[in-house]
Amino acid sequence: MIMRRHDFDIGAAAPILPVDRLEIAFDGQYSTPRLHHPEGIAIGPDGALWCGNAEGDVLRVDQKAKAITRFATTGGFTLGLAFDAGDNLFVCDQKSALVWRLHLPSGAFSPFTAEGMRIPNYPVTDPYRNCLYVSDSFGAQAPGPGVWRFDLGTGRGGLWWSEPMQFANGMALSHDGSALYVIESLGRKVSRIAIAADGTPLGCTDHATDLPGLPDGIAFDDAGNLYVSCYEPSRILRIDPAGRIELYAEEATAHAFCHPTNIAFDGADMYAANLGRWHLTRARTDTTATRLCTFFANIRKGRIP
Fold first, then answer.
1. What is the DSSP secondary structure assignment for residue 144, as one 8-state letter?
2. Is the model's pTM score more than 0.90?
């Protein structure tokens, strides 16, 4: 992400979440391996935090043991990550411009997609259609397509949403699977792509525009509110189902939050990766959200929300 100066005025309102609800979940400045500029974050089926670094590592953080383990590496730059029901972790890598798959039971790690994407930034698993969506940021100089889709079983797929987007970034699937919400970072907005039952994209509309910050990551809570992490300034926004935008959390010194990129929920805790530093942040929220891997598994078992 390229940092640009803007006046991101959100008025005099104080953040909803007090700053003392923000804390360092894991400090990897001098860990082995180092947690060097993490961008992606995902919660594993056992509650461990999975993330990456600027060396292309795929890392597991055990919060209780305060330990970090390297499970695999691309040798590039690890971007977004997403689990299916728990056996597979999908990893976007900037250098190879591929999505890789880590099979946790065996440890096998290999490319999952073929060449074609420019900047595969963030993956989202769809339990309703057994597929993986991947945002392609394309480039910072001009808009470009878009969102790709791949079959989770075979890895076959291609460009799914071909219309230009302004640096497609973080994404989230609606609880009922009827829409994919996509951050357009350089457009400062959240777009909504409606999805037909057969998986065909039905069209794209603006869900929230003129966001007070450069948005990067996105996540739903169980109540249907969207949370948007802003790379600049370092803050979290909340967008309610009616589209009202609120300043949810902010850390003016850029310490607890330092250019947060991707975010992920584990119950009442929200975790953020901080591209500007070497740590993961925990926010003790006033809401709750099911782990995405648990959500995926529940849908596959027929437990429709």
1. B
2. yes
Q: CA–CA separation, 126 vs 118, rounded Å?
A: 22
- The full set of domain ranges for the chain reads 19-300
Residues with Cβ within 8 Å of residue 252, at least 6 apart in sequence:
none
Q: Does residue 221 contact residue 196 with C-beta atoms inside 8 Å?
A: no
Could you say which of 3.30.1330.40, 3.40.50.300, 2.120.10.30, 3.40.50.410 is the CATH number of the domain covering 19-300? 2.120.10.30
Q: How far apart are CA 75 and CA 27, in angstroms?
A: 22
Q: What is the largest CA-CA distance in the chain?
A: 52
Hey, what are 73's tokens? 């590496």
Long-range contacts at 270-273 (CB < 8 A, ≥ 24 apart): 270/219, 270/227, 270/236, 271/25, 271/41, 271/43, 271/49, 272/41, 272/217, 272/229, 272/236, 273/38, 273/39, 273/40, 273/41, 273/51, 273/217
Would you write out the chain's pLDDT as a tens digit for each of its 305 residues? 333 444 566 665 789 999 999 999 999 999 999 999 999 999 999 999 999 999 999 999 999 889 999 999 999 999 999 999 989 999 999 999 999 999 999 999 999 999 999 999 999 999 999 999 999 999 988 899 999 999 999 999 999 999 999 999 999 999 999 999 999 999 999 999 999 999 999 999 999 999 999 999 999 999 999 999 999 999 999 999 999 999 999 988 888 999 999 999 999 999 999 999 999 999 999 999 999 999 999 998 887 76
